[in-house]
């Protein structure tokens, strides 16, 4: 993560995590986004006035079932959404 002025910029190419099989992927995404939003808003108070830091979308797949090309295409599509 780098800080440009008062704006935090983070680039995450991928994350590999291990989660109990009883936890749904949407719960993991929701908790990660909620936690990081809380931390960023605490560190950068001007972010408090924003309605949301993250979109509701997320991408989940097992490591053996999707190619890196599929992930790259998904990320590229998210960057072009309005």
Automatic annotation (TrEMBL):
It comes from the Bacteria. Residues 16-78 form the Transposase IS200-like domain. GO terms for biological process: DNA transposition. InterPro entries: Transposase_17 (IPR002686), Transposase_17_sf (IPR036515). Gene3D superfamilies: Transposase IS200-like. GO terms for molecular function: DNA binding; transposase activity. Pfam families: Y1_Tnp. Transmembrane segments: none annotated. PANTHER family: TRANSPOSASE FOR INSERTION SEQUENCE ELEMENT IS200 (PTHR33360:SF2). This is Transposase IS200 like protein. The lineage of its organism: Bacteria, Thermotogati, Deinococcota, Deinococci, Thermales.
